[in-house]
Design goal:
The complex is a heterodimer of chains A (296) and B (297).
Chain A: H1 2-6, H2 8-36, E1 39-42, E2 45-51, H3 55-61, H4 68-98, H5 104-112, H6 119-129, H7 137-143, H8 160-171, H9 173-185, H10 189-197, H11 202-213, H12 215-231, H13 234-239, H14 244-247, H15 252-261, H16 266-295
Chain B: H1 2-11, H2 16-42, H3 47-53, H4 65-72, H5 87-117, H6 124-132, H7 140-152, H8 160-183, H9 187-195, H10 200-211, H11 213-229, H12 232-237, H13 246-256, H14 261-294
Helix pairs in contact in B: 4-14, 5-8, 5-11, 8-11, 9-10, 11-14, 13-14
Classes of the chains: A mainly alpha (296), B mainly alpha (297).
């Protein structure tokens, strides 16, 4: 047995497919993106590269076609909204459904459904709902006695950010709810029962027993929410066009996509990609650290 | 778990607070259901109804012809060149890519997991953490390098251009899920098979793989849905209309076919409802696979 399972060639061959995929598509590109971001390229032709150091990064913040500061600010805002509005909503749903209410499976299944719909389609539906000539949002605005913004919610510089972020935040409420619900359900029933016998209210049980118990899951949700916000692309890409108004709602991935495929500036595009990778790792580490501190 | 539920329900009194919670739950459920309802009714209306007199109600005349309009759209119509071949090829492309990706992910991750949980060597833990990096690496890293490499290899606008990256980015999740299941398979089985004369490969294929069915289902469902809805790679690496996947076809429809809103709606229904119908039948399994993909054990 030992001889069989200790054979170096066998070990190598079993790891080979995964390693080839993983290194060639995930690991090598990190370094390649970082490398390309230090050069000025003509289109995507590597042989024309000209070393410019950190010039691309400087350009991003100063004098690039798009103001990356706006995009970064939007991404951070989205991350903030995600952590402080989306996740609490998910948590409230998970707590309400996880403690044995009638119809909990139905509510759970319905609330999770948006996660399965392609972001492209949600983006298109939302654009239609916001359409200034026939969108349902017009009725809602009229009902609330809010003046319809000129050009529609998605093309007005004052409302575009809110209009773009709403479906992004909405779509994944159900996802985080599901993760947290699974956590709530894994709390041993004896814990709850003991607390209830001691006279604890449901709110107290949630606060002092369930929340500490599901902290690892909340950590995962926070990491996903923040890194997901930094990376967000699909939904926003579908909803916005190419004019100046839309640039107010750019996030880094959109700037990256535009640099790459509208302007063929691969150095600048790679600089945005590299920045995103670094930011995602930094935030994952910070969040891990914050939660570890509290656990002690 | 199920046992405890009844006792709590009896403890809880149905007062105003409960009522408020239920109103909240119902309201949120309605918000989540509305888009699906609206999309479906929208797909059965005429432009007149959509553009003015009946925006959110049930269709007055159920225009099933919107569906035949969409299904009949074909590549020969130059105006709709983007839509080459219609929505059916989009389906076929998406399904083919998803299925091959799932196969690749399953093979690669089960083999790697076998090496990580059963074979005897140093550095297993480190290798495992290395693979788990894949859970946090954003797909953005791959875009520029892959775009350049695929261009040089003349592989842009082929199925490979999507299958390989999809598989690579699903690998970490696959290994995560498979590890949980494979650790639960008793080692005595390996020993028994070994005594019966099986080699490492024989044990893997004849003993381990057949016992991994629950893990296979979990990984397959999760990967399938990820591939089906993926948009960033699909829109960047595929420019040839014949290889476009469903999300890209759907997006192309958005601007280009504005003259007939109902038909656009019908196309969106065709793109969305297969997944939702699948979900109706396998909701628990699908939810479990999303949980397994995020949470260890």
């Amino acid at each position: 047995m030992k001889k069989l399972y200790g054979n170096k060639l066998t070990i190598f061959l079993f790891l080979l497919p995964a390693l080839v995929l993983f290194i060639s598509i995930l690991i090598a590109p990190i370094f390649m993106s970082g490398y390309v971001s230090l050069f000025k390229l003509q289109g995507m032709n590597l042989s024309t590269r000209e070393f410019v150091g950190f010039d691309n990064y400087r350009k991003l913040f100063n004098g690039g076609t798009y103001d990356i500061k706006v995009a970064l600010k939007n991404a951070f805002l989205l991350a903030g909204l995600s952590v402080f509005i989306q996740l609490p909503l998910s948590l409230a749903l998970a707590l309400a459904l996880g403690s044995g209410r009638k119809g909990e499976r139905w509510f759970l299944s319905i609330n999770f459904m948006p996660v399965l719909i392609s972001a492209v389609i949600i983006g298109m539906l939302w654009s239609k709902l916001c359409n200034p000539s026939y969108g349902v949002m017009n009725y809602i605005l009229d009902l609330l006695h809010i003046e319809r913004p000129a050009g529609g919610l998605l093309a007005n510089k004052n409302t575009i950010l809110g209009a773009v972020f709403t479906p992004v935040l909405w779509q994944y409420v159900g996802y985080h709810m599901l993760l947290m619900y699974a956590g709530v359900k894994s709390v041993p029933p004896e814990y709850r029962e003991a607390a209830m016998i001691d006279g604890a209210s449901e709110a107290q049980v949630n606060r002092h027993i369930v929340l500490p118990f599901i902290k690892p899951i909340i950590k995962i949700s926070v990491i996903f929410a923040v890194t997901g916000s930094l990376k967000s692309y699909d939904l926003i890409a579908v909803m916005i066009g190419d004019t100046g108004v839309y640039e107010k709602a750019y996030v880094p991935s959109i700037s990256m996509q535009r640099y790459l495929f509208k302007f063929n500036q691969f150095g600048l595009g790679s600089a945005v990609a590299t920045m995103l990778i670094v930011l995602c790792f930094i935030f994952a580490l910070i969040i891990g650290f914050v939660f570890r501190e509290k656990e002690d | 778990m199920a046992k405890s539920e009844s006792s709590f329900r009896s403890v809880r009194k149905f007062g105003p607070k409960e009522l408020a919670i239920y109103i909240g739950l119902v309201l949120w459920a309605v918000i989540n259901l509305f888009p699906v309802y609206w999309l479906f009714t929208f797909s059965l209306k005429s432009n007149d109804e959509i553009l003015g007199d009946n925006i959110a109600g049930l269709p007055r005349t159920w225009l099933w012809s919107n569906y035949s309009t969409v299904l009949a759209l074909g590549g020969k119509d130059s105006e709709l060149g983007f839509f080459n071949g219609g929505i059916i090829p989009g389906f076929v492309n998406s399904a083919f890519i998803a299925v091959v990706t799932v196969g690749l992910v399953l093979i690669a991750s089960m083999m790697a997991t076998f090496a990580l949980t059963r074979l005897l060597w140093k550095g297993k833990k480190r290798m495992n953490s290395f693979f788990m990096l894949g859970l946090t690496i954003p797909v953005h890293v791959a875009i520029v390098p892959l775009f350049i490499i695929l261009g040089n290899l003349h592989l842009k606008s082929t199925y490979i251009a999507l299958i390989v990256p999809y598989a690579a980015f699903s690998l970490a999740m696959g290994i995560l899920v498979c590890t949980g299941f494979m650790q639960d398979i008793p080692k005595e089985l390996d020993e028994a098979a070994c005594i019966d004369g099986c080699g490492a490969w024989g044990i893997f294929f004849r003993v381990i793989v057949p016992l991994m069915k629950p893990a296979v289902a979990t990984v397959a469902i999760y990967t399938l849905l990820q591939c089906w809805n993926e948009f960033m790679f699909a829109s960047i690496f595929i420019s040839d209309a014949r290889h476009k996947t469903i999300p890209v076809v759907a997006q192309a429809l958005n601007g280009a076919h504005d003259r007939d809103y109902g038909a656009t709606g019908a196309a969106l229904v065709l793109a969305t409802f297969p997944v939702l119908i699948f979900y109706i039948f396998f909701s628990k399994k699908i939810q479990d696979s999303f949980i397994a993909g995020a949470v260890k054990g």
